[in-house]
Specification:
Elements lengths: L6 H17 L1 E9 L6 H21 L2 E2 L2 E11 L4 H13 L4 E3 L4 H14 L3 E3 L15 E3 L4 H14 L6 E5 L3 H16 L4 E6 L8 H8 L5 E5 L2 H13 L5 E4 L8 H5 L8 E6 L7 H15 L7 H18 L4 H9 L4 E3 L2 E3 L12 E7 L2 E8 L1
Parallel strand pairs: 1-3, 1-4, 4-5, 5-6, 7-8, 7-9, 9-10, 10-11
Antiparallel strand pairs: 2-3, 11-14, 12-13, 14-15
């Protein structure tokens, strides 16, 4: 069938389409998390949170500086390894991303921060809680969760005051996150008048804890704190039960996942495990998190593990700064990002202080009932 348009008209239409295509700016946002290794389920959870935000922004037809933009997610795997983390960071810098969301772990986020700082690229971590992350003097570093000083200290007080821990044992995995939160927990216990009867350590890939648990059993702890991730906490809990240690297990956001009951393989009774997630909403604001969980499940056929909502908010905070600055150029939107105040996210209100830390960061305390996380209270 012949075209009904004159050749000149066809050429004109083609040029208009080409001009429209060229007018759409590509904005590349990097994401880094452990999508392989023992924390892969958490890293994939994070990446899906980023993809959800990107897809929604593209569906809205966001404009920056009067231009239509298309957001593209550039995802990298750091396997929770600091060396791989800095390599992934450099790869994102070389690929000219305009901003980075990540990394998941403090141990990878801290060294990667220098790579992004040297390149002038903003980095927002959804989950790195070690205080050092935002205390390196970099203007490009931000986080949307409370740090270990708040998290560990709160858990330490909770162990003594609410769980009535008279003899508290502490174990950490010797990562920047695990050791950092365990140190702050121990300070919180002592400040509350509690007694730490033993301090042991393992590593983030360990599966056998018989030696350290046997040592702690002799000290008869009624609360055991673990600084590390859920992939280690699950087997640790199973072996605690196997040795007859009846203490409650408490930990930070690293163990506070939907996957923990499965990893513990039936070794979790109701009210035997307590944890805190760096973030939290109360009252009417809870509906935004509930709605996010439903939309996430419908889109990915998966349950939110821990950090996906914080990744989602981090992407949206970054893009909001670009829109307000009228530019996706890091040098132009970075000052606007740093002044973020009162951004309403699904995880609560986000404002940054001079270091890039979230102001008035919240914590949500949880226990597990019937194999599901059960929120107890929000602490600020």
């Amino acid at each position: 069938m012949k075209s009904l348009l004159h050749p000149v008209a066809l050429a004109s239409a083609f040029l208009c389409l080409s001009a429209g295509a060229q007018a759409q700016e590509i904005v590349r946002i990097g994401h880094v998390g452990p999508t392989s290794g023992t924390a892969a389920h958490l890293g994939k959870d994070n990446e899906l949170g980023a993809r959800m935000a990107i897809d929604e922004l593209n569906a809205k037809g966001v404009q920056i500086g009067g231009k239509a933009v298309k957001f593209v997610l550039v995802a990298e795997d750091d396997a929770s390894d600091p060396k791989q983390g800095t390599a992934a960071a450099q790869k994102l810098v070389d690929s000219k991303v305009q901003g980075v969301i990540g990394h998941l772990n403090s141990g990878t986020s801290i060294p990667a921060a220098k790579v992004y700082s040297d390149a002038g690229i903003p980095q927002i971590s959804p989950s790195a809680t070690n205080p050092k992350f935002t205390r390196q003097g970099f203007k490009t570093t931000f986080r949307v969760v409370a740090d270990d000083v708040h998290l560990g200290g709160t858990l330490g007080r909770y162990a003594v005051q609410q769980l009535k821990g008279k003899a508290v044992a502490v174990i950490d995995d010797r990562t920047a996150y695990g050791q950092g939160v365990a140190d702050e927990f121990e300070k919180g216990v002592k400040a509350s008048g509690g007694k730490v009867v033993g301090r042991e350590f393992t590593n983030d890939k360990a599966t056998d804890f018989s030696a350290i648990l046997t040592s702690l059993k002799a000290k008869k702890p009624d609360v055991v704190f673990f600084g590390g991730m859920d992939a280690v906490a699950g087997p640790l809990l199973r072996q605690m039960k196997g040795l007859g240690i009846q203490a409650k297990l408490i930990g930070g956001d690293g163990i506070c996942s939907a996957q923990l009951p499965k990893l513990a393989a039936g070794a979790m009774g109701d009210g035997e495990v307590y944890c805190a997630e760096a973030g939290g909403v109360e009252g009417e604001a809870k509906s935004a998190m509930v709605d996010f969980g439903k939309r996430f499940a419908a889109k990915f056929n998966a349950e939110v593990q821990v950090y996906a909502p914080y990744v989602y908010d981090a992407v949206n905070v970054m893009v909001a700064a670009m829109v307000k600055a009228g530019s996706s150029d890091p040098a132009k939107y970075l000052p606007v990002l740093a002044k973020t105040e009162g951004f309403k996210g699904v995880t609560g209100t986000i404002s940054f202080d001079a270091k890039g830390d979230i102001k008035n960061g919240a914590l949500t305390l949880y226990t597990y009932t019937g194999g599901k996380r059960d929120a107890l209270t929000v602490v600020r």
